[in-house]
Every structure is written in C-alpha cells, then in structure tokens.
C-alpha cells in the first residue's frame, strides 16, 4: 500500500464516489465493517444492516446460495420476493485464494457500467487496499478473541487462583461489565456434552455473536468443544433469549441459565448449573421449551445428571415396566402422572384430562392391578412419580 495511511472507511467512500453507488463492506461472516455515506433514500435492507452491524439472516442465506463465497468475481443476487429487497451485486475480496470480505451494493438495473473497464479497474484498485486492511483487522480480532477465550476459560476452571486472576483481567480490561452479580448462559445443540459438528459449531458461533452484539451490557462468551457459554453482568433475560432462538436456523438450539453469583470468580458455579439446565431443556422440551433455568428444575437438578443414555426399561421399577408393557399403557401412565402431579386429587386430575371423575377412578384401579402396586402407600407414590420422570428424561416412555 506504499506507506499510505488508509482505513476501510476512506477506501469505501472513495470507491462509492467513483462508482456512484452506496456501498457496504462486510467481513467473511457478514459483520458490517464499513459503509459509504448515502445521499439517496436508504433501502430497508441497508438500514437494518447499519443498525444491527450485521447482514440479515436472509441476506446471508441468499449470498451463500449464489455461491459468492466461492466466486472470484462479482455475483448478482436476484431480487428477494420474500422481503422485496432489490437485486444486489456482491464482490468477493480475496487475499490470494483466501476470502477476506465482500463489497455489496444495489444492482443498477443495467449491465452497462458493471461490465465497463473503468468500473472493474476501480473495484480492483479498492480491493487491493481492502484485502490488506481486512486481513489486518481479522488478525487483530483473532488475537482479541483468543485473549477473551483464554480469560473466560480461566474463570470457568477448577482452580480458585486461576479463576480469581482471570476474573480480575476480565474486569480490568473491561471485557465484561462491572456488576453486583454474574450469570452463566449455556447454548447447545441437543445435550451440551455431545461433540459439535462443523455445521453445529458455525450455528453456535453465529448465535453467540448475535447475542453478544445485541446485549445491552458488556458480555463475554465463546464456543467450547461441546457447547457455547456466556457470562453476563446481570440476570439473563429469558424472553429475549427465547425470541432469539426462534429465529430461522436456530430451532435446534437449547439454552440453560444458572443462578447469579455475586463474584465473577464464582460464576463457574452458575456455569455448572446452566449446563444442567441446558441438558434438561434438551431432554424434555415439552416441560421446559427451548430454555431451562436452574431455579425451575426442582428434582430434575439431580435426575438429569444421571447416566440417562445408558438406562433401559429394565432399570425402571417393575410396576412401571408392567404398565409400559400393556396396550393401553400410555393412557394409564398419563393418568397416573397427572394424578401424582395434582397431589392425588382425583377431581383436579379429571379436570386437567377433561374426563369424568369416575374414569379417573377406573384408570387408577387398573393401574394398581396391572402394576401390582398400592397407591395408598406414600413410598409407592414417590417411587412411581420419580420413575415416571426418569422415564421421560431417558425417553423410555415411547413404544419399543
């Protein structure tokens, strides 16, 4: 670059004036790097990108479908009928063979200028500067991310001295906001102990990046080997996380939230709770939805930590095994569970199941005969209630 002190904003603005186009510059993950000033009316996609500092999910999908990440020249993204967005030109920027970013602008509707030599020359000249600037930016971000990850892993380690030192670094360097309490959030694809595929890691990376970027306070987070974790200097807003997980492509994700801790060095305890909560959400979405909080788990705090994957029906108490073996077992088991959940109140059970109370009594009689169990005994009720919960978490209640 001949010693010139350039920055990406200058390069993009100069190129925009040469091409008479409003330009946006992205990195390879479609985070907004720079954009040119605009005299004309700003379109909705550009507005969203500038406000969120990131390409839209729909835009990322269309760019990938068009193969822009593999291209060595400009690619035209057709108009999007779903959103009404106009056609766009995506110009990949490469440093050698490696992709380092994209220039994007609205297609003018005529190919005349797009194919002109002066147009290509202007893009090529800007790309020669931008490829180095984006490369330097990427290296800087990787160094910063590595430092954050190192300190975060330190805070989550088993050694108290390491945790205290890492917590001090995170606070002193303002990698996390000052607070009276700190809370852990775990994100996983399925249960949080499963090894991540490349695709799952990308999804978690994308989700975590969005959460960190949109958080109203300074949050630190990363993707580990089997799950993602963030430490927040406040209580986690469960509704906001649920809304985020409802976005396209994130429906497979599950989240767990630990209880807050007064000291950052003690956030490892909240992290362990969040891991258990994420596992509960993965094992029983019907009860928890995509997000579970440690404070809501009750007995599941213990049960989800059992080796559920290795359990079989033979490990369940014999009365429940016998109920699972009969043809109308599912109806009987649902009735039993509802009855126990309602503190053995037959009338409340009938209301919840929308059946007559005599039907509940009939089913309870069948349950006791088939299961060879006396529900009048407190120990029998406790045994069946716990066994039903384990069978649900271990997914042993379906037909086999």
Automatic annotation (TrEMBL):
Span of domain CdaR GGDEF-like: 179-280
Domain PucR C-terminal helix-turn-helix: 332-390
Pfam families reported in the protein's UniProt record: GGDEF_2, HTH_30
Gene3D superfamilies, A to Z: PucR C-terminal helix-turn-helix domain
Protein family: Belongs to the CdaR family.
Protein name: PucR-like helix-turn-helix protein
